[in-house]
Design brief:
Layout (H helix, E strand, L loop, with lengths): L15 H13 L9 E5 L4 E4 L3 H17 L4 E3 L4 E3 L2 E3 L3 E4 L1 H7 L11 E5 L6 H13 L4 E5 L5 E5 L2 E3 L13
């Protein structure tokens, strides 16, 4: 969700193992602990930061609450790192089945995407960036990916493209 796209170095992209190691280093780094915003790693291992807006925080909390309301049989996650083909990406919210949690527990980053990954869009997000993230979450194992616009509209996607309703049994209340 970075607002700028920096030119990437000519070096090769990092492997998943290298990204996982870099993520673990970030988790232990006291200099990164108090940075306000979502940190992600792109596929070269470069840290990307997205500062949140208040509206973003409202929508993120709303979606997390709604996911739990609709499907309390699983676990609602907020900002969990996921290994993807484009780096360690961090959806704003996610929902994982009990089976997923039993299989992956509290691994960080998660080696696969939970069944549902949700991104709350910010004004700086580009359409191409969100298409790449959507494809990356789906390739990493998500069944659905949702994009929530600033007005609370939800666009849902599965491996075949845009869908009209969730196949996972979610029906959200109107956003605040």
């Amino acid at each position: 969700m970075s607002s700028t796209v920096a030119k990437q170095p000519a070096e090769p992209r990092l492997s998943r193992a290298e990204l996982r190691d870099r993520w673990q280093q970030m988790l232990r780094d006291p200099l990164l602990a108090d940075i306000p915003g979502k940190l992600e790693l792109n596929d070269w291992g470069t840290i990307e930061l997205t500062p949140p807006t208040t509206r973003h925080a409202i929508l993120q909390a709303f979606v997390a609450k709604e996911l739990y309301r609709c499907r309390p049989d699983g676990t609602t996650l907020g900002e969990c790192g996921i290994e993807t083909d484009i780096g360690v990406r961090v959806p704003d919210a996610a929902w994982a089945s009990r089976e997923f949690i039993q299989r992956h527990g509290s691994e960080s980053p998660l080696p696969r995407a939970p069944e549902l990954c949700v991104e709350v869009l910010s004004p700086a997000n580009s359409r191409i960036e969100m298409q790449e993230k959507t494809a990356a979450y789906l390739a990493a194992g998500a069944i659905e990916v949702w994009l929530v616009t600033e007005d609370g509209t939800v666009q849902m996607f599965d491996a075949d493209g845009r869908i009209a309703a969730s196949a996972l049994g979610f029906a959200l209340s109107p956003a605040p």
